[in-house]
Amino acid sequence: MSGHTVDAHAPSMWKQPTAVWAVVFASVIAFMGIGLVDPILPAIAKDLDATPAQAELLFTSYLLVTALAMFFSSWISSRLGAKRTLLLGLVIIVVFALGAALSGSVDEIIGFRAGWGLGNALFISTALATIVGAASGGAGSAIVLYEAALGVGIAVGPLLGGLLGNISWRGPFFGTASLMAIGFIAILTILKKDPAKPAPVKITAAFSALRRPVLALLAATAFFYNVAFFILLAYSPFPLELGATGLGFVFFGWGVALAITSVVVAPILLRHFRRSRLLMVVLSALTVDLIVAGLVVHNRTGLIIAIIVGGLILGISNTVLTEAVMESTDLPRSVASSAYSGVRFLGGAVAPPVGALLAAAIAPAAPYYLAAAAALIGVLILILGRKALVTADEGHESAAEEAADIVLGDAA
């Protein structure tokens, strides 16, 4: 029955080397960039005379380039080293966030968001592998830390975007550039030594990794899951019809819900249920929640409740999916992370403009029904591929291998 056990004598998840906290801090800021533009999408559409579908391309250009670059991030980091790759990613984000802030048209912002996505890919994929490799307490604790950073970043991003966006839609972009510069300084000064440099991997390593049945199944599940995730995140500001500050607070609540279940609820559930079974349950719950969102799309209070409940569900699924991927194969973690993340973010890139076009062509509820269908497809993939998910449930890494990783991390 149990899919994940925790040693009662294991080090506390919160007692980590300073270098880990530096990467976690920068990760929070990086994840803020995902939801930062959410509250200002209607304002950008209005001020720059763009349609909702055009405004949604701010997500698509960002996530598409993130996805494509993810496939090669492990190849780059294996040659540059983790620290240099993290710093390069942060520099790229600062430059393109500033470019977006200074843009004069929606097309320019879309282009700068694409460049931003390149930096995001280099940073996020490398950060996950770095935290897992350097954290004390084992891979499970490290993944919870990473998901905590995601949850906090996704919670604070929309709130900051809403508050700054209430002044000008340019404000959130200037804010991101400033915060990323702080993250750059933190990594540069606190991460004194580069974590143990991995052996160079082939440029095609991520694509080869997807030949592993378990990784391919989890990546396919994540593709459809991210369709649901980003329709809920990127499309919802339009039917809510709130100002930037109001949207910021709604999605702050959504992000807080996601963070709580990522850090607190998911680890508890993982002690009692197998990862694949837990994923089936939470994706089924997400399907129901999205159907409800479609049914109450014209009721603002009902839709806000559905969004917050969605955050609670997404927090669990994020943590379980990430842990399943990182523990299911003997691949270098940077390779597994880049392969999985590349496919996952492709789903996110497709979802926002498709949702906006469906809303315009059919009805405001249509994007939520599409998202529900995508989540249900994720459940079906898990059911049909359950025999291949044995390693995802049991974990591939032995205790000796995990201990070696922790020693390497402490040495860094």
Describe the structure.
This protein is an all-alpha fold and 412 residues long. It has a single domain, classed as Growth Hormone, Chain: A (Up-down Bundle), CATH 1.20.1250. The protein contains 17 helices and no strands. The longest helix has 29 residues, at 52-80. The protein starts with 17 loop residues before the first helix and ends with a helix. Residues 1-10 and 396-412 have low confidence and may be disordered.
Secondary structure layout:
Layout: H1 18-35, H2 41-47, H3 52-80, H4 82-101, H5 106-134, H6 139-165, H7 171-190, H8 205-209, H9 213-234, H10 237-240, H11 244-270, H12 275-295, H13 300-327, H14 333-361, H15 366-384, H16 390-394, H17 399-411
Keywords: Membrane, Transmembrane, Transmembrane helix
GO molecular function, one term: transmembrane transporter activity
Organism: Mycetocola lacteus
Task: Write a short abstract of this structure.
With 412 residues, the protein is an all-alpha fold. The chain is built from 17 helices and no strands. α5 packs antiparallel against α14 and α6 runs antiparallel to α7.
The helix content, as a percent range, equals: over 70%
CATH superfamily: MFS general substrate transporter like domains
Domains, number: 1
What is the first-to-last residue Cα distance? 36 Å
Number of strands: 0
The residue-averaged pLDDT reads 81
Strand % is under 5%
Order of helices and strands: HHHHHHHHHHHHHHHHH
* CATH fold-type name: Growth Hormone, Chain: A
Please describe the biggest sheet, giving its number of strands, its sense, and whether it closes into a barrel: none
Which class best fits the helix and strand makeup? mainly alpha
